Structure formats: C-alpha cells, structure tokens
C-alpha cells in the first residue's frame, strides 16, 4: 500500500487463478482473522529460518504487507527484521500489521504514530539517519531479501534487538536528502544535491 488508494471492482475471470492464485490471504479481507490468519501462519512456518521481514513482504505468505507496514509493525513489536520466522510471535505481528493497515485504509493519510503533523507519521519507515522516536538512537535502513528481490527495511537496532545486517555503524542519511554515487570508477563516494553542479 502506498499513499494513494484505488478501488477495483469486478468479477472472477477465466485467467484469474493464473494471475493471483499464488497470493496468500489478503490481510485486509474481512475473513482474515477467522480464516486467513491460520493460512498465513501455516505458509510462514514452512520456512522457519527465513528472516521475518522478508517473509512478511512475500505476498505468497500474506497479501498486502509492504515495506512500510513491515517496518512499522516489527518496530512496534520490538523485533529485528532479520530475526528468523520461528523466533517471532507471528500471530501478534500479523494482528498488529492488520490493525495498522485497517486504520491506514480509513484515514486520509497513512499514519502509524497517531501524530498528524507532517513528518511525524512514521516511527522508522523513511527515517534513516534520524533519531528513533522511542530511544533517540539512529534509525537505519538496509536491504532485506534475496538478491533479485531485495527491499528496504528500516529499523532501530536498539529498540529491535537481534540479528542486523553487517554495516559500519555510521548514521545513514535520511532518504531523499541526496544520493550516493560512485565517482569515476573509484571507491570514493560523491553526494549529489539538486541544484548543484556534479563533479
């Protein structure tokens, strides 16, 4: 789910199963708590050593959770996105994700903090390099998932103890403040800022 919403209405088609038959239960479906939760838990349990962040993003397990709700859910649960699936209270995580997503679907703006002020709507998502709202430490971002399917995972290493990706420990720049680009094939890094000459 992004910041916009769309309504798609239509009936089943002949090729529908081929297109969406692989998807897990829809976390926003009315029947999810009664039927979809058990199916999602069964699918998640098939790969107990997989990282929970990657598993929640896999739409074959549960359909609808994107990077934002994965990051915010795991932050609120105090779970590292790199924690193995079998070490996580999955029912609690899925219930929390659903609550956040239902609330987000009924508001004009997606917001997990409850603070309506601009820039105060997320705990960790999109906030790398900024202070954690809970502990004041630096929020970080890293890639999660298989190399061909990597997605971003925002997290607070202090509030979400457990496995983390290897990094150098330096605070990272907030997203959107510049891009890191290799310069002339060297390992030196240049930061691009809009409105300034590159060089």
TrEMBL record:
Transmembrane region(s): none
Q: By its UniProt entry, which InterPro entries does this protein fall under?
A: DNA_glyclase_Znf_dom_DNA_BS (IPR015887), H2TH_FPG (IPR015886), Ribosomal_uS13-like_H2TH (IPR010979), Znf_DNA_glyclase/AP_lyase (IPR000214)
**Region spans: Disordered:** 104-125, 156-199
Entry keywords, A to Z: Metal-binding, Zinc, Zinc-finger
Report the SUPFAM superfamilies cross-referenced here: Glucocorticoid receptor-like (DNA-binding domain) (SSF57716), S13-like H2TH domain (SSF46946)
Q: Which domain of life is it from?
A: Bacteria
Q: Which residues form the FPG-type domain?
A: 123-161
Catalysed conversion reaction: 2'-deoxyribonucleotide-(2'-deoxyribose 5'-phosphate)-2'-deoxyribonucleotide-DNA = a 3'-end 2'-deoxyribonucleotide-(2,3-dehydro-2,3-deoxyribose 5'-phosphate)-DNA + a 5'-end 5'-phospho-2'-deoxyribonucleoside-DNA + H(+)
Species the sequence originates in: Nakamurella flavida
Q: Does the keyword Metal-binding apply?
A: yes
Pfam families per record? H2TH
Any one GO biological process: base-excision repair
Q: Which GO molecular function terms does the record list?
A: class I DNA-(apurinic or apyrimidinic site) endonuclease activity; damaged DNA binding; oxidized pyrimidine nucleobase lesion DNA N-glycosylase activity; zinc ion binding
| Protein name, per record | FPG-type domain-containing protein
Q: Does the keyword Metal-binding apply?
A: yes
């Amino acid at each position: 789910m992004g910041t916009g919403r769309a309504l798609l209405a239509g009936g089943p088609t002949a090729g529908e199963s081929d297109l969406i038959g692989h998807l897990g239960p829809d976390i926003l479906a009315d029947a999810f708590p009664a039927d979809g939760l058990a199916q999602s838990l069964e699918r998640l349990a098939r790969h107990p050593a997989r990282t929970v962040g990657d598993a929640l993003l896999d739409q074959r397990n549960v359909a609808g959770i994107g990077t934002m709700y994965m990051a915010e859910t795991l932050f609120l649960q105090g779970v590292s996105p790199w924690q193995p699936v079998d070490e996580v209270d999955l029912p609690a995580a899925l219930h929390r994700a659903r609550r956040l997503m239902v609330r987000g679907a009924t508001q004009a703006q997606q917001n997990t903090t409850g603070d309506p002020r601009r820039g105060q709507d997320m705990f960790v998502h999109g906030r790398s390099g900024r202070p954690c709202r809970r502990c004041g430490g630096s929020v970080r971002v890293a890639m999660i998932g298989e190399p061909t399917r990597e997605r971003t995972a925002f997290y607070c290493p202090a509030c979400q103890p457990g496995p983390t990706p290897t990094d150098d420990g330096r605070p990272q720049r907030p997203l959107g403040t510049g891009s890191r680009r290799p310069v002339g094939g060297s390992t030196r890094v240049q930061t691009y800022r809009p409105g300034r000459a590159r060089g």
